[in-house]
Amino acid sequence: ICSVLQVFVDAHPHIPSHRRLALYSHLTDVLGASHYLYLLILLLLLKDNPEQSTVRARTSFAKSLLANFCMDTQLSAVFGMSQFLDRLISSTKSTKKTMDYNEDTIIPQ
Predict the structure, then answer these.
(1) Residue 79 confidence (pLDDT)
(2) Are 49 and 56 in contact (CB under 8 A)?
(3) What is the pLDDT of residue 105?
(4) Which residues, at least 6 apart from 43, have a Cβ–Cβ distance to it below 8 Å?
(5) What are the helix (H) ranges across the chain?
(6) 67-94: buried (b, 16+ CB within 10 Å) or exposed (e) per residue?
(7) pTM for this predicted structure
(8) How many CB atoms are located within 10 Å of the residue 41 CB?
């Protein structure tokens, strides 16, 4: 699933802005928002592009996408992201290296 989502994340700048929210909302609904919304948001936010305007645009889009779902799904996504960050911090402290994100590190066991 991570690789499928990564394709959509890579295509994000090429999708017309007026269609993005509907497309990504539908994609997340089809995959199961309670399980994969946090993963899509993380991949969007972790996308390599340090340009400040792009980071702001992706952050704004991630907020809009999150707001498009019910409160339970939003809380589930925030919890999933916090679990990922907790594992990232723990791994970084124990290995003193940056963790590369992939399906094994983002999706909880």
Answers:
(1) 95
(2) no
(3) 56
(4) 2, 5, 6, 9, 101, 106
(5) 2-11, 17-31, 33-45, 52-67, 71-95, 103-106
(6) ebbeeebbebbeebbeebeeeeeeeeee
(7) 0.78
(8) 24
